[in-house]
């Protein structure tokens, strides 16, 4: 019989990927996540929190992300089979163990807590489960969590502080051969405080923090989804433009209680409204790095019309609201 597999078009596989993508929610996270606070670039975290750009992932990548989540119940079973008690749900809330700081603007959710870890059976441990490719796993074996995976280290420090725990049990799997690696991590209050304060500075910053590098070809900048909004690309105006929503607007401010305030209308902004923005939207000027602020005017509503001057040129543009940026001549022609 002829081998049909090599003649079969990838239609079904494409359909599987399409189905995965269709099921995926594209709604952005409401908060700055504890799982990413250890990123090296504070400016990137500010862009994440401000919803500057939503990176799209195809079905294959989404399936890859799902693989890590699917491993968690298996690791829990492995631990319970070894006589370790693992709790994934907080009885006080009926939900996953969670931590929050700064009014809820900074949050995270733990994989679980456990007691009966063989090296310290009477000590409660935070549980954090991760999967690694072969290269990453070998670095983990060589250098440990703090050096090889600083984001993971920051995450468990923040979660231990939030849950009042003094130890974390970090369990990792090599996706190549199923080898397991475990590391007990000690709570360090100074380091946890550092990450929590870092989150505060990012959340309440009116402007993007300093770049990690002023060189667009720096390896972390070169492949960053925010590169054009940070360093400026070839176009005067970024293409695509930053997202239009309340968090990219100069009129909105995060509040200490976890809410967002529209300074223009003096009203609290629900999540759904934050996503939509409004006709008086004006971008935070630093999101258009090839333009510099020339002056600002007030509209009848009191909203600011920001006039930009092209860097090194006399061409001017107007942030005309509702996601529009036009030349000065075009704007004045509409008056």
How are the elements arranged and paired?
Blueprint: H1 11-23, E1 32-33, H2 42-49, H3 59-81, E2 85-87, E3 89-90, E4 95-96, E5 98-101, E6 106-109, E7 112-115, E8 125-132, H4 134-148, H5 150-163, E9 167-174, E10 180-186, H6 189-203, H7 219-222, H8 227-230, E11 252-254, E12 260-262, E13 267-268, H9 271-276, E14 291-298, E15 304-310, E16 316-321, E17 324-327, H10 328-333
Parallel strand pairs: 1-6, 8-9
Antiparallel strand pairs: 2-7, 3-4, 5-6, 7-8, 9-10, 11-12, 12-13, 14-15, 15-16, 16-17
Descriptive notes:
By secondary structure, this protein is of the alpha+beta class. The protein has two domains: 10-202, Lambda Exonuclease, Chain A; 232-333, no CATH class. It has helices at residues 11-23, 42-49, 59-81, 134-148, 150-163, 189-203, 219-222, 227-230, 271-276, 328-333, and strands at 32-33, 85-87, 89-90, 95-96, 98-101, 106-109, 112-115, 125-132, 167-174, 180-186, 252-254, 260-262, 267-268, 291-298, 304-310, 316-321, 324-327. The strands form five sheets. Strands 2-7-8-9-10 form a five-stranded mixed β-sheet. A four-stranded antiparallel β-sheet has the order 14-15-16-17. Strands 1-6-5 form a three-stranded mixed β-sheet. Strand 5 (98-101) and strand 6 (106-109) form a beta hairpin. Helix 1 crosses helix 3 (59-81) and helix 5 (150-163) crosses helix 6. The mean pLDDT is 91.
């Amino acid at each position: 019989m002829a081998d049909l597999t090599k003649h079969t078009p990838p239609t079904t596989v494409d359909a599987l990927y399409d189905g995965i993508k269709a099921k995926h929610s594209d709604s952005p996270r409401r908060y700055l996540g504890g799982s990413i606070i250890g990123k090296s670039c504070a400016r990137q975290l500010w862009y994440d929190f401000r919803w500057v750009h939503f990176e799209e992932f195809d079905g294959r990548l989404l399936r890859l992300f799902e693989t890590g989540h699917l491993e968690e119940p298996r690791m829990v079973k492995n631990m319970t089979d070894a006589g370790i008690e693992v709790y994934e749900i907080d009885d006080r809330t009926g939900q996953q163990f969670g931590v929050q700081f700064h009014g809820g603007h900074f949050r995270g959710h733990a994989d679980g807590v456990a007691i009966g870890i063989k090296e310290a059976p009477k000590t409660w441990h935070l549980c954090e489960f991760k999967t690694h490719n072969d290269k990453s796993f070998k670095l983990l074996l060589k250098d440990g969590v703090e050096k090889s995976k600083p984001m993971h280290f920051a995450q468990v420090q923040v979660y231990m502080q939030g849950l009042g725990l003094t130890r974390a049990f970090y369990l990792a799997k090599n996706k190549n051969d199923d080898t397991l690696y475990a590391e007990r991590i000690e709570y360090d209050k100074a380091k946890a405080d550092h990450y929590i304060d870092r989150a505060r500075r990012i959340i309440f910053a009116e402007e993007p923090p300093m770049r990690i590098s002023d060189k667009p070809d720096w390896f972390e900048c070169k492949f960053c989804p925010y590169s054009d909004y940070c360093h400026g690309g070839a176009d005067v105006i970024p293409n695509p433009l930053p997202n239009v929503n309340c968090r990219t607007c100069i009129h909105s401010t995060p509040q200490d209680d976890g809410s967002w305030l529209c300074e223009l209308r003096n009203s609290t902004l629900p999540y759904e409204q934050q996503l939509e923005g409004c006709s008086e939207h004006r971008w935070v000027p630093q999101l258009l790095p090839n333009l510099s602020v020339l002056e600002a005017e007030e509209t009848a509503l009191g909203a600011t019309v920001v006039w930009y001057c092209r860097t090194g040129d006399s061409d001017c543009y107007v942030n005309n609201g509702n996601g529009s940026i036009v030349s000065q001549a075009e704007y004045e022609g509409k008056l």
